Amino acid sequence: MGLLEVAAQVVGGVLVLFAVALAVVVGPARMRTASDAVRSNLRAVASAVGVLAVVLAANGVVRDLGVEVSWLIGVNITGYIHAIEGEFVAVLQSFATPALTAYFGFVYVFGYVFLLTFPLAAYLLHDDPRPLYELLVAYIVNYGVGLVCYVAFIAYGPRNFMPELVESLLYTTWPEAQLLTTEVNRNTNVFPSLHTSLSVTVALLAHRFRHVYPRWYPISVALAASISVSTMYLGIHWATDVVAGLAVAGLSVSVARRAGTGSAPVMSQCPKTQPVGRRWVDGLRRWWRDD
Asked: What are the TM regions of this chain, as residue ranges (predicted)?
């Protein structure tokens, strides 16, 4: 089986998840009446889409050439990470079962792609462009931080650093997955875990905008938690990488929230939503009148 066949499997599985989630989370009624929202949202977030495209292109270049640059200017922190947490990942793998491995392998590949792409489509269908805009900005920050860290730090995952203790469970159960993962990452780029940071970013924004799609919030939290654990269970990331990923997610959402509040294109498409400062002034005025 080649790369195209593996990619087709992933796309097919994600499309099935999309179909179910659109029906359960978004609902047929919104999908039937969302054409106007799609057009206005695309206009409102066009600048963010452009920046994200540039950042993703830069990540592609770094993935191909950055390893050599990293060895010239970066710091190898693998030993420090191992000194901090020891054999935690090996202990976690001691609880491995075929069922758990199948589940975590599924969420690491299929669940991750679904979690990152579905909210883009769901928020695009909503009347308010702010959730989509903040999600795009948060993705930009995630990939931007990842780009810098992957050049500044050299870090091998536990499966590479101590293969006698940690097994590559994803590749032993689904060897073809390596054809896909090697296209999007290198074995020295594990700090921080972008699987964790991006997944948790989606969950945090699902909580922030839970009034938009209430059913999406628990689904995203469950998937984000599972994906974060899967990165360690499968021997790909250290716990330290996951903790760093959580920090990147918090930073990304904070930056996105500020950007969403102050963005003129988004605010012009969302006249009912006021900047934070204006809401405080109006609230004080109402309090003064009611007193």
From this structure: 6-29, 41-62, 102-124, 136-156, 216-236
